[in-house]
Amino acid sequence: MSLYTLTIIQKLLSSVFFFLSGLLWKKILKNQVNYHLIYYRTLFSILFLFIVTLILSYFDNDFSYGPLSKADMMDWVITLSICFFSFFGLYYFTQALQKGRFTIVVPMSSLTGFFAVLSAVLFFKQSIDFCSSLGFYRNFCGISLPPV
Q: Helix 3-28 crosses helix 73-99 at what angle (to 10 degrees)?
């Protein structure tokens, strides 16, 4: 299996899992405050990460905790920034799910693709070929046009 095919499969799996997560958030959040659920989600994510780390350290001889102990101040600043933006991204997404229509809010989350393309061009100096830009334009139009 080529790396390209594997990447597409991983992205499809990611999309399915995020879709199922969105369905659960919509079901759970009927007239409830969402930040306490984000807090619980974070605790369970830490627990899940701890369990996976234990499993990896048991089965994988190459796994080591070395890189974790070598974190400098910039690593911590970046990590805290990711946590900050992730929290508020999820907070406002779940607020939109709670108050808006699922069929409008979830497709709008595809706007992250717009920001990904923009950051790829501006920050990572990646070029975009004609087919990619055409596909991006088509998706963007599909998201931004009002429903019929």
A: 50
